Fold each of these.
Amino acid sequence: MFEHLQAYGGDPIFRLNEAFHADPRDRKVNLTIGLYYDEQGRLPLLDVARRAEEQWAAKGQPRGYLPIEGLASYRSAVQKLVFGADSKVLQEGRVATIQTLGGSGALKVGGDFLHEAYPNSEMWISDPAWDNHHSIFRGSGIPTHTYRYYDPATRGLDFTGLMEDISVLPEYSIVLLHPCCHNPTGADLSDEQWLQLIPVLQQRKLIPFLDMAYQGFGRSLDEDAFAVRAMVDAGLTFLLANSFSKNFSYYSERCGGLSVVCKSADEADRVLGQLKAVVRRIYSNPPSHGGQAIASVLSDESLLAEWAADVETMRQRIAAMRKHVHDRLKELAPQYDSSYFVKQQGMFCYTGLTKEQIQKLRDDFGVYVLESGRISVPGLNQSNVDYFAESLAAVVA
Ligand code: LMR
């Protein structure tokens, strides 16, 4: 029956992560998948999350279905986190928010929704991109293309290229943007650049779809949402996917959100209905466990402050590892420009290493970097960061 099917080549990120775990060498460093590891190389379960889970478990609640759109307290907590607690757009009831299966689930529901609302619209995604962006939206039936984003010469943003490409898109094109911590490059637009881009999106009647999977890992929870809030201030209609996988360390709980900012409360109501229709036909309704914990943490002032402090600790550790590599490389390979380690921000660093250098890192040093040259910085800690810098210095020499 299925003889005609081809073998799945595997996902480039998950496949490499598995190859790392299968590597029998003692000395090896995993910089593949975007997971936040602590200083001991462990995946944290945040204490604030553990306590919230225990409290909920102690209540022995029955496990009825959640509403299709998810838990009301969770959706409201998501809105306050991403738009700001005092956001005008929330007071006006102009945002339709649903609980989703992680950030990827939000992209999928958003993709299906947009393809129905604008069947002729195509999507533009940064070059380079998180590979799965193309797969998810093509899976929704939306043709995808790329806009210029990254300049290999500076290992930074090609803002001129981005503006040139976006300014000529057909009306109602969908533009996928990362408000912070761009995956895979770590190169973000500055606040001023967002303020230049937003009028172009508006004048050309484009549909921005923001993917915010790393809120809090760049500058702070609030500052990382600058683009979101600037779009609200400018009166744009847009979609926003957010995720708690990284900043709540809740990867397998699949907790995310999809918000659509609308022109009026009435429009938001109809959009919410359509989002529910999409969810109902894909997975019917979301699970409750992780969402309950997040809702109880985010809706309690002191627990929220505790979680925000945890996120800040993660952010600072990532920044410290970036600086450590940069400083060590200055000593070990002074001719090599390692400034990109500190100029890029968030979980990922885009090294620009060649295929041969990446292979050599893996074969000779057990250092696993994605084939694109992306490294996930939190795989570094005090016990392996010097080894990594030395390995990198050896391959770039
Ligand atoms: C990554 O880019 O490594 C993460 O977003 C994990 C994933 O699902 O690919």
Amino acid sequence: MQASQSPPPDHLRYLRDDDMPQAFQDLLSSLPLEEDWFPSLRLYQGFWFPSSLLSGIFNCQNHFQAYLSDILLVTNPKSGTTWLKAILFALLNRAKYSNSDSQGCHPLLTQNSHELVPYLEHKLYLEQENPDLSALASPRLLATHLPYSSLPQSVSDSKCKLVYLGRNPKDTFVSMWHFTNKLRPEGKGQIPIQECLNRFCRGVSPYGPYWDHVLGYHKASLEKPEKVLFVTYEQMKLDPRAHVRRLANFVGCPLNEEELRDETVEGVLRMCSFDNLSSLEVNKSGKLWNGLESKLFFRRGEVGDWVNYMSAEMGERIDGVVDEKLHGSGLKL
Ligand code: A3P
């Protein structure tokens, strides 16, 4: 942690990077730094990563071995990861919890989806240099925020599946601004949104530039549609039923005729709805492995909420930058 920044409180110890080995500290300090974003960010392989996660990123890049059957869920932070994790978990495990008795003990009722679908670089490879993941139930459902170009080699070489969830940049930005404010040490107050916006538009945000992150996966989804599925938060909101079917087909657990007729899809959507998940005790008062409160991952869960925090001018500024970067890609967000 840089001397000019106060260290995060103990319950956010995962944001600290001062107890890493010296060699790693040296490497870390050679990377360009953005201190003003909390937690601080370092530029590595063309993207701004939270400094405290870099050891997890290196470990994961060096050691993760993808299996053909793996399903990797990828997002830019604040794009709806919590929701998609829940949906994919519920879909893959639906046979186990299909009747009313088993529904009552569904893991999503007592565990946050971030615990059920672990992050590679945030959790598994941050806690251990080379964790043994061979015992995880198959197909392994894992998550990452890593950009496409920074994925471990074995992921690129394998035929494992990647599901990417994109989100409108203005809503992603506002969601990220709120989240970042909640992570700031007590007494530091909110970061002025205009300051945050300036950085976002320069490409400086966790796992940013936002547009390069999205474009990497969008391009991959066009080149390798059997490997990468690109979906957006807005599409999911607009027609959740169709997208649950699409996700199920892509990850190799299609809904059968009976499931398409009965309440299966509605059951998954009900279980994973914002209202249901955010009202569960585990998500109201629970904490994640890293000390973060689960409730931080549930705010409004709506499309277009940016208008409540940014002027039209600020919105146009984000649109201008992002539209220019996305120009020619065929992608509109
Ligand atoms: P808002 O801040 O706009 O409300 P992530 O999970 O990637 O951190 O993204 C968090 C965003 O997803 C937050 O957006 C949060 O409210 C929203 N979200 C969380 N759970 C959701 C759900 N079940 N359905 C829809 N949106 C959800």
